[in-house]
Give the backbone structure.
Amino acid sequence: PWFNPNIGTPEYFNACATWGSYMSLPAGSTGHLQYPRTGNAFAGIYVFRTDVQNMREYVEVELTEPLEADKCYYLEFFVNMPNDHTYACDGVGAYVSQGVITGTNANPLTVVPQVKNPAGNLIADTLSWTKVSGYFTAVGGENYITIGNFRDDANTNWTQIHQNVWYETSAYLYIDDVTLQLHEWKVELGSDTTLCENEMIELDAEKLDATSYEWENGSSQPTRTVSSAGEYWVEVRLDGCKASDTVLVDIEPMPSLDLGDD
């Protein structure tokens, strides 16, 4: 059910296509050679061209169900640079939207993708598939995903990789295996607790793949040792997702005993 949201002309490559159609797999008459990462097919889009300013192609699809507000989601897809195109570039991302997004020309769609390939990370591997992935928090109601290069030419990094190939003025990417799924993301510091005087406790907020930690005292470490009464909180970020927790610590003074004089 993928479709074209602007006036570009994205391609659908399939093992059943005939040689002369240019869309045949694993090889074709333009000199391309690539196997799908899985299955029998993948999509292909222009992400940069030197002969047509700011020309972009995209593929878009409706999700099976809308995203839930304030929930964390993981999005990944795989791309590959064809060996019949001259240039490699860093411009590709995925934008999840409330409703369809479209363009009346072939210019970049003016939205900011939630997940994108880092600037300067040129996708030049023509053999293996390169993963583009990230986490984001849904606003709620998002029900379409669009993949392509949302940066204009001025903000797209590119370099020449091949010479004497079929397509001499473009950077192009194959796209396969798109995944969007709910990611359970929470942090737990434990229950409120009472310590004896001079006792210490370690608060542990460490999470796999976390990108940053922020405690109420400004610490950016995943763990914290405390020995005084107070309210302690931490916010843990994972790309565009965040989770927080608070714990109360009370101190019980040491008891004093007095049996009287000898």
The longest strand covers residues 167-182. The two ends are 92 Å apart (CA to CA). The chain has a mean pLDDT of 95. Residues 48 and 63 are 27 Å apart (CA to CA).
